[in-house]
Amino acid sequence: MNVGDTLAPLEIPVTRTLIVAGAIASRDYQDVHHDARLAREKGSPDIFMNILTTNGLVGRYITDRLGPGAVLRKVAIRLGAPNYPGDTMVLTGTVAAVDGDRIEIRVLGANGIGHHVTGTVTVTVTAEAAA
């Protein structure tokens, strides 16, 4: 991999099931992640994805693209526009730095209302994964 290389995008349909399952799996029982009525009472148009689910999807994106030899070393993300049910998040990545077996990738996840997640992921890869 070389600086400037791009990873193939990944489209993720944002469903109620994904949002609720991600919240439960990460033990985030905040009502805004599973109860639409209470989310609306708090000013949101619907339930929305939590950061831990987003973090997991970013990690999945990188490891799916780089293969089983990729090991996540650092994931640094920031949330922006919420992921609401019925939308699609498209993850994209660009290689920002390469130092031996260590690769830093800039990640962007966009949905219908803007940038849901931005950040960088640092991975190490075996020779087989980089080939």
What are the low-pLDDT stretches, counting only 5+ consecutive residues below 50?
none
Strand arrangement across the biggest beta sheet = 1-3-4-5-2
Report how far the terminal alpha carbons are from each other. Answer: 8 Å
Backbone shape: elongated
Q: The biggest beta sheet, please?
A: 5 strands, antiparallel
| Rg value | 16 Å
* Alpha-beta content class: alpha+beta
Number of strands: 5
- Number of helices in the DSSP assignment: 4
Average of per-residue pLDDT values: 95
Task: Please summarize what this structure is.
By secondary structure, the chain is an alpha+beta fold. It has helices at 16-25, 36-41, 51-66, 127-130, and strands at residues 6-13, 70-79, 88-99, 102-111, 114-125.
